[in-house]
Amino acid sequence: MEERDIISYLSQIFQDELKWCIIRHLIKNGKVTVKDLARLCNTTPKKVLQALNEMEEKGAVEITIEQGRQYAQLRIHG
């Protein structure tokens, strides 16, 4: 799936500024910690995790824990 197809698919699901910030950084960087996403999106880790949980329920992202850190990455199936 090409980047523009991914963005088109995601735009149908998410219409929230924070979620779009998260999506942009996950597209650009692949796997990112919740703490780094909070810094990059100028918000708190708690708000990022809430958004990620909603996104995970819709199947768009995957949250993992590695070495005590929470990571998020896109989960797009083409």
The biggest beta sheet reads:
3 strands, antiparallel
Amount of beta strand: 15-25%
Instruction: Round the mean pLDDT to the nearest integer and report it.
Output: 87
Radius of gyration: 12 Å
Low-confidence stretches: none
Number of helices: 4
Features:
single chain; 4 helices; 18% strand; alpha+beta; 78 residues; 3-stranded antiparallel β-sheet
Topology at a glance:
Elements: H1 3-13, H2 17-29, E1 32-33, H3 34-40, H4 45-57, E2 61-66, E3 69-74
Antiparallel strand pairs: 1-3, 2-3
Helix pairs in contact: 3-4
Compact description:
By secondary structure, the chain is of the alpha+beta class.
Please explain how this structure is put together.
- There is one protein chain.
- Helix 3 (34-40) packs across helix 4.
- It is globular and about 35 Å long.
- The protein has 4 helices and 3 strands, in the order ααβααββ.
- Strand 2 and strand 3 (69-74) form a beta hairpin.
- The protein is α+β, with helices and mostly antiparallel strands and 78 residues long.
- The N and C termini lie close together (5 Å).
- The protein has a 3-stranded antiparallel beta sheet.
